[in-house]
């Protein structure tokens, strides 16, 4: 189904005739911009930059791979593999590059593997649009590795590694990392804050009445669970945002939606039934296995009803992102035809029904 991979289009190849797809001149222009910027930062006027290669469509962010060579104190430091993560012309996700940079810098000081951040252009003065330049981490990205051809035991081991990394994020102390002054703490009302955020994002791009969404929003508001803890939340944890090498996780990527909130938000994201092919292995690594492993690694208890609620919120988030793509298309910022999120409406209504049955069982 189309929507199983729509949370972000970073996993998809560039599409010709898309407004933010690189023109023939764009890589060379960006190369010169990066060369001039990094030459000033490093103090080496002879710094050399290889032609940047666009690796993904990145409707939420552009990713450009390039190499740079510069000297420090007259000595060559060799070739450095870098990636420039730049805002696109139009995006389905509004996020703050300063916040993303602060989160990356903070998490880099922990055991959670993230690329080292080197330079930040917050206002687009260096590369036309806000840009982060960071190390290019080793490893490969396989969005559907758990459904791929690897032996079952290797896939199960990777699934466990992914869960360990998610739990490691939730064990971090945001205050000790200095993120208390960067990210707002929603406290026990994180679920209400999440509903309000995505409701506001919906109103920005809504083009017609959406009675099903009004019902779903009302249900989410009425049943929002109180948070048992506040942690750092990744916001888009998935194999497509992880690099792997030799059976281990070498980097967790794409922290643009990171925030403080209920860790069950991430658990609800990775147990969303619509995206089971990304996160689960039928008969081997099921929903209950993932949640139980997360509980072991964090020492927390995951309220199953609350996780189901966050499953609904995850699909509301996906719905708003799909509608944002439609809005961008209608306003000439994108020319890919985006399907309507009707399938997501059905998924949410089904989850709400399941929630009602489970709530009755737990009454």
Give a summary of the structure in a few sentences.
Helices cover 41% and strands 14% of the residues. The protein has 363 residues and is α+β, with helices and mostly antiparallel strands. Helix 4 packs parallel to helix 9.
* Sequence of secondary-structure elements: HEEEEHEEHHHEEEEHHHHH
**Beta strand %:** 5-15%
CATH architecture of the largest domain: Alpha-Beta Complex
The chain-level structural class is: alpha+beta
Q: CATH superfamily name of the largest domain?
A: Aminoglycoside phosphotransferase (APH), C-terminal lobe
* First-residue to last-residue Cα separation: 35 Å
Protein name: Phosphotransferase family protein
Region (Disordered): 1-27
InterPro entries: ACAD10_11_N, AGP_Transferase, Aminoglycoside_PTrfase, Kinase-like_dom_sf
Domain Aminoglycoside phosphotransferase: 67-296
